[in-house]
Write a structure and sequence with these properties.
By secondary structure, the protein is an alpha/beta fold. It is built from ten helices and 14 strands.
Length: 379
């Protein structure tokens, strides 16, 4: 597997991003990804009870349809907690974009991110669509990446390539997210594109596995978003013989997808609102992976622990406190805690529970005064 030096769209994909006037700042806030041919799709969505209108629409579309050709995305407005008007506007985005692309209305996903509780300025979006579609290009992924950001400080994108079934295939991932980060999933949108020809069941299985150890293993503030979406589109333009979950090369594809997802997930943590450090928490010697992950998140979501890391204070008592909340029976002599150097941009914490042989890794960031400033002024 090789990493492209610059983000590179797979064969058959185009993208664009523009300003539609949703954000008062005038920054880009409307993006589109389009495939020239039909794609197989798989997705994972938030489990928040107040999932946003675009999430509900996209879940419905995924249940009912076999193929898709793109996704329309806006930032600056979450279209969440907006009632029937919000649902109607999400469908209008899908239908208007499909018509503009001369597609069936059910071939386009929709996603939104931004402020909750405000009605979507749908007329601005519809009015900007012709300009958005005209600007689609094979080199437009950077513009798309800019258009989906909210409090992000930098773009989050990666492209890798490898030979599968004798053909060179490309896997490209783009995401946004910087706050309200906690499984399942995080406050994030992630779009993964590939020209691989792959069976739908194999694609779905691979995405679930890749998400488990990446986007579902990070936390910034323990707050679960209402708009989370991880979507993968595979259009088959690499012209390989169709890949199934039983093929030898399936593991190679899975490895690529896991690498892309983990890379993007870690950039989200690095860009955590106000963050100065990324923290890796390795929990060892648990009875199960689930147990290890649960302990990891208890530590990651402890404000006392996160502020200690910001202050470069190796206060292991704060780790003891967080582990103790788990309710697990751990003997004092069996709990081992080890910090790496705290004056680095990346800090590693190792915790051993002395209960078994299973492990898990969780990623988080430190908690700083800047986090309070950003979120107290968000609206």
């Amino acid at each position: 597997m090789k990493i492209y030096s610059k983000t590179h769209l797979p064969l058959g994909f185009k993208a664009n991003g523009i300003s539609a006037g949703i954000k008062k700042s005038g920054k880009p806030d409307l993006g589109l990804i389009f495939s020239e041919v039909k794609c197989r799709a798989a997705a994972v969505f938030t489990t928040n009870a107040f999932m946003a209108a675009p999430v509900r629409v996209s879940k419905d579309l995924l249940r009912r349809n076999k193929f898709f050709q793109g996704v329309i995305v806006n930032s600056g407005n979450a279209n969440c907690f907006t009632g029937q008007s919000g649902l109607k506007n999400a469908w209008r985005m899908v239908e208007a974009t499909s018509k503009m692309l001369d597609l069936k209305a059910k071939n386009i996903f929709v996603a939104s991110t931004g402020i909750i509780g405000r009605q979507l300025p749908i007329e601005k979006i519809l009015g900007a669509l012709p300009r958005l579609v005209r600007g689609l290009s094979a080199s437009g992924i950077d513009k798309f990446s800019q258009s989906i950001q909210t409090t992000d400080k930098f773009k989050k994108e990666i492209s890798v390539k490898a030979y599968i079934k004798g053909k060179e295939i490309t896997l490209c991932g783009v995401c946004k997210g910087a706050g309200m980060i906690f499984p399942h999933l995080a406050t994030m949108l992630c779009f993964i594109l590939t020209d691989l020809n792959i069976e739908k069941n194999a694609l779905e299985k691979a995405l679930r596995i890749a998400v488990a150890d990446s986007f579902n293993s990070i936390s910034i503030d323990g707050c679960q978003s209402t708009n989370d979406t991880v979507l993968i589109l595979a259009n088959g333009q690499a012209a390989n013989r169709i890949l199934t979950g039983k093929d030898r090369d399936y593991k190679k594809f899975l490895s690529m997808l896991k690498f892309v997802c983990l890379n993007l997930a870690k950039t989200i943590v690095k860009d955590g609102e106000g963050a100065t450090k990324i923290i890796r928490i390795d929990v060892h010697h648990a009875k199960s992976k689930e147990e290890a992950k649960r302990v990891g998140f208890l530590i990651a979501n402890s404000n006392l622990f996160k502020t200690a890391i910001y202050g470069e204070d190796p206060n292991w008592g704060r780790v003891v406190q967080a582990v103790g909340v788990s309710g697990l029976k751990i003997k004092e002599r069996d709990l081992k805690i080890n910090f790496s150097a705290l004056d680095k941009k990346e800090v590693r914490l190792k915790v051993s529970l002395g209960r078994g042989n299973k492990s898990a890794t969780v990623y988080t960031s430190d908690l700083t005064p800047a986090y309070i400033k950003i979120n107290s002024q968000y609206n």
